[in-house]
Model the fold of this input.
Amino acid sequence: MNIYVLMKRTFDTEEKITISGGQINEDGAEFIINPYDEYAIEEAIQVRDAQGGEVTVVSVGTEETEKQLRTALAMGADKAVLINTEDDLDYGDQFTTAKILSEFLKDKEADLIIAGNVAIDGGSGQVGPRVAELLNIPYVTTITKLEIDGSNVTVVRDVEGDSEVIETTLPLLVTAQQGLNEPRYPSLPGIMKAKKKPLDELELDDLDLDEDDVEAKTKTIEIYLPPQKEAGKVLEGELADQVKELVNLLHTEAKVI
Amino acid sequence: MARKIVVLGEVRDGALRNVSFEAVAAAKAAAEGGEVVGILIGDSVHALGADLIHYGADRVVTVESDKLNQYTSDGYSQALMAVIDAEKPEGLVFGHTSLGKDLAPKIAAKLDSGLISDVTSLEQAGGNLVFTRPIYSGKAFEKKIVTDGLIFATIRPNNISPLDKDETRTGEVSSLSVDVKDLRTIIKEVVRKATEGVDLSEAKVVIAGGRGVKSEEGFEPLKELATLLNGAVGASRGACDADYCDYSLQIGQTGKVVTPDLYIACGISGAIQHLAGMSNSKVIVAINKDPEANIFKVADYGIVGDLFEVVPMLTEEFKKIVVNA
Done:
């Protein structure tokens, strides 16, 4: 089984966001593997362990993404590929990333591609389905269960809380939803081994792409923080009176009920 | 600049979802006087066309087939691409729902176009159509424009107001015949789980529980209040990790982002990753035993107390109003 995982490096979920010079301030921030991509990596490792084969984790990013790719190798992935766009691109959108990934994947004969269903920074959730479409393979998003029997696949898809049981076939792209598995922590031997595993670095040239081929279709013109929410009113007095007052406030002042 | 915009209407349990009417309003704004064409896909959706028109669509095109009785990305994209080929729109608007999130990127890839996902507002500014959307799960926002090709957006439920319903509005509801074939994913079964009733992402009222709920049974008083207010139950990551409820209820940076009119946080401490998922709600109520809990910093109203005392009292008190309403 030839398995690929699409991974993104993101801000740690515990980080507070600040802005400087119109951009998200990255100074001193912790970066992690996008949490949904951790599920993808874990699932890929489990499928490989059950079915044999190889897991390659691929990321479009910068030199700094190497750290998260090494973590994926330490979890148990076999190979990593960094497509470094630092020198070629100032700005990319989901069109850009999907185009780059699909150019990379088109001759790899992947049986299974797993991605996170959304990245917690940009939050678009576009890249997985776009890549599947560009590779002309089926896809299922937000999966919570994956079973493979030969080339037949049964997945459970989370649809706003309900579950769909879906039958499909390989080659296939799926995107991981929370609940798919419990991602492992890299073990110490895993971390040692990861240092020797292959981590290839490619640039757009290596994929026969130039900047124009992947030029973004959309552009961010402003980034801003939402207005700080003022702490509101903590009610006082007997609990029963507080409850009465709260219902009254919601009904007459806030008018939400 | 007038543009023709198509809107995908979404049907759930035989009726159009509210987000579809919001999408029509967004399409109207994006069309700048151009035509807004609704699209309905399903096995029997023709009768719902008038509804989209009442909410502002100029006309509606339906694609009906028994192979479209359930959503599949292949089936819906075949139907949609046929309509797009016939209509040649300059823009598309979908809801940012489970269906929209799944389908829109595929269509964008087919059309070689950009896609601005999860839009919370749009406006004309400096000759551009400017889309606002949350990033970092609402810890920040970005404004985006389309620089090349079609205008394509998915809109977040509960953020863009639908136009007033006008039952005197009329328009053509036509049908397009499409030979739907080669579906590569087949839905064998749909298991209805936690979200019987109101969908969490579309709910106007969300009652959320955290670690303070203490057990699966602890969610019962929250469910009762949610049912009374026609709302949905949500949870913090702490409650999900402790197995008090299903992960599908999780609200936060991992999990769902919600923006209801009223959010009642019960026994939730207010970790930054949870706040990211709910702090843009219109009115936030916090109920927590710990007066120092972080959640009070974002709450409009707070009650320091035991949720198992306060929530049932709230339910009783709300009954007086809801019955009177």
In short: The helical segments of chain B are 18-31, 49-54, 73-87, 98-110, 220-228, 237-241, 272-278, 307-324. The CA atoms of residues 55 and 164 of chain B lie 6 Å apart. The mean pLDDT of chain B is 94.
